[in-house]
Specification:
With about 250 residues, the protein is mainly α. The protein contains nine helices and three strands, in the order ααααααααβαββ. It has a three-stranded antiparallel β-sheet, with no helix packed on it. Helix 3 packs parallel to helix 8 and helix 4 packs antiparallel against helix 8. The longest helix is centred in the first third of the chain and has 35 residues. The radius of gyration is 28 Å and the shape is flat.
């Protein structure tokens, strides 16, 4: 019991900096915002408690329904688009790109929008969507259509914000989904192909569940489970062994 408490204490000690930052910069501001909504706080930070008057103004405002609709559409499209792109690039970089080096380079490119400082990509967006002939999008637009340049940000603000949000957000999810896909066992129930030793085919893996169960309960020696035709395909995990027919690739 004391050993378990010691391990739990270590875990909380390592998590404490993160928990403090989350509490100070996320949880506490959320409570403060809720409290401020019941006051008439102004730019001079002078306030008085006003009850539900702010909420009454919100529900009486004719733009409230439009704001709610736009928010719902934005959240739905942004989340759906981000998840679809996450899964697409995760599958592409996990199964269709076999080389880990090439896959890693491709994922690194995907991470660029996410790790780039906001000031940098704000300047890039302004350059891309410049309303004059100097903007890259307008250069392509006028060359293909022969029309006058457009002020894209002023004409399509909702679409631009939605597109920029998806572009900046999907890289992180791609990494998470890729790791999850790699951890999925193969069709035979054994280890995934990426975890097999060199020279062993993923299609040859077979997990001998009954023998492993007996060995784990102490009913058999794991080393005695290596019957003719079987050899160990990987390191011992706990007291469980994965067995495989050796099949050179």
């Amino acid at each position: 019991m004391n050993k378990k408490k010691y391990k739990n204490g270590q875990a909380y000690a390592f998590l404490s900096p993160f928990l403090v930052l989350v509490a100070v910069f996320y949880i506490l501001p959320a409570f403060i915002t809720v409290a401020m909504s019941f006051t008439n706080l102004d730019s001079a930070f002078q306030w008085h408690f006003t009850g539900l008057k702010n909420y009454e103004k919100i529900f009486r405002d004719p733009n409230t329904l439009t704001i709610i609709r736009n928010t719902a559409v934005f959240v739905l499209i942004a989340i759906t688009g981000t998840v679809v792109l996450d899964l697409f690039f995760a599958v592409m970089t996990t199964y269709f790109i076999k080389s880990e080096r090439v896959s890693g380079v491709f994922k690194a490119f995907l991470m660029i929008p996410m790790i780039t400082p906001a000031v940098v990509y704000s300047v890039l967006w302004i350059w891309l969507l410049e309303a004059s002939d100097a903007g890259l999008v307008n250069q392509l637009y006028t060359a293909l259509t022969g029309s006058l340049p457009l002020n894209w940000i002023a004409k399509y603000p909702f679409q631009i914000i939605l597109f920029a949000t998806v572009m900046v957000s999907f890289a992180y999810g791609t990494t998470i989904f890729s790791s999850a896909i790699k951890s999925i066992p193969d069709q035979d129930g054994g280890l995934g192909a990426e975890r097999l030793p060199q020279g062993v085919s993923g299609s040859a893996v077979r997990l001998r569940r009954g023998d492993l169960h007996a060995a784990d309960r102490g009913g058999a020696d794991p080393h005695a489970l290596r019957q003719p035709g079987y050899e160990s395909a990987g390191p011992q995990i706990g007291r469980k062994w994965y067995e495989t027919d050796i099949e050179p690739t």
